[in-house]
């Protein structure tokens, strides 16, 4: 079996104070692994906040062939501690680490000998191919052919460049059934309806804001789930988890104007009563679009304004003007 672990963040970090949201990235990877007939469990220590010796007990109980750890720069410390604990508990278990941190600095992640593989970029396909390789499934490909994987080879780190998933609709819904959904914060600021859940329906960004590393994971090419697929996942959330609201977490929800309009049209046509919120840029909305979004239940938009100073916006390479910000509001 494959055990996916989301490490805890340091309690005094800003992330330690933020909302407890389900680890969607790990849930996407879990769903892809399940679709490929692997048995998968998720242990979300961001939620449970257990010390590493307790996680070691979880690993001993599950006796996994593979442990996958979701890693960002904030939880990196515990990620490495968990990897060491896993190898102490199960020396033959292979460890793959994916997420923003290994996507940006795979060499430094692989400097820890306990970590066998770093997954760069979108994790679904790479994790499945890697799991097939590790478990020696007949259809497995060679390690050097698995895109998005970095590994040690003799004294060097070899990196197979990641490939983007062009058609996101091929991905199954995130494996929320492996999470204790009722233990997460299912109330979203500025949405009245509860419970409210998160979805991520757009990947990639063609902009170049200096402070942002989104492209390292999702690439420059923006891709989105189809409106039909988004509606199906909303229905799934409503039917299985009683969701009444959704926050479309992620960058630039409105980047494909036609798709956003179609999504709004479908929501109304299907009579789906949903309150929702999204993130986007001030230059990716128009009056026409905003009116349709409001009619379809959009209650809140989080705009990445960043600054009211033209000089700072310029330095950030944000690519928007104060006039565009005022116009959007
Ligand atoms: S528009 Fe948003 S996602 Fe894109 S580079 Fe700027 S901050 Fe990052």
Structural account:
The chain is α/β, with parallel strands linked by helices and 329 residues long. It folds into 2 domains: 2-159, Cobalamin-binding domain (Rossmann fold, 3-Layer(aba) Sandwich), CATH 3.40.50.280; 186-328, Aldolase class I (TIM Barrel). The chain is built from 14 helices and 13 strands. It has helices at residues 14-17, 24-35, 45-48, 52-62, 76-89, 100-104, 106-110, 123-134, 214-218, 227-241, 257-269, 287-295, 310-316, 322-328, and strands at residues 2-6, 40-44, 66-70, 94-98, 117-119, 149-153, 156-159, 196-199, 202-203, 223-224, 245-248, 275-280, 298-303. The mean pLDDT is 95. Bound molecules: iron/sulfur cluster (SF4). Residues 205, 207, 209, 212, 214, 251-252, 281, 304 line the site of iron/sulfur cluster.
Features:
single chain, 329 residues, alpha/beta, Rossmann fold, TIM Barrel, 2 domains, seven-stranded mixed sheet, four-stranded parallel sheet, 14 helices, binds iron/sulfur cluster
Unreliable runs, pLDDT <50, ≥5 residues? none
Rg calc: 20 Å
Report the top-level CATH class of the largest domain: Alpha Beta
The secondary-structure class comes to alpha/beta
CATH topology of the largest domain: Rossmann fold
**Main sheet characteristics:** 7 strands, mixed
Write the layout of secondary structure elements.
Blueprint lengths: L1 E5 L7 H4 L6 H12 L4 E5 H4 L3 H11 L3 E5 L5 H14 L4 E5 L1 H5 L1 H5 L6 E3 L3 H12 L14 E5 L2 E4 L36 E4 L2 E2 L10 H5 L4 E2 L2 H15 L3 E4 L8 H13 L5 E6 L6 H9 L2 E6 L6 H7 L5 H7 L1
This protein binds iron/sulfur cluster.
Iron/sulfur cluster binds next to loops.
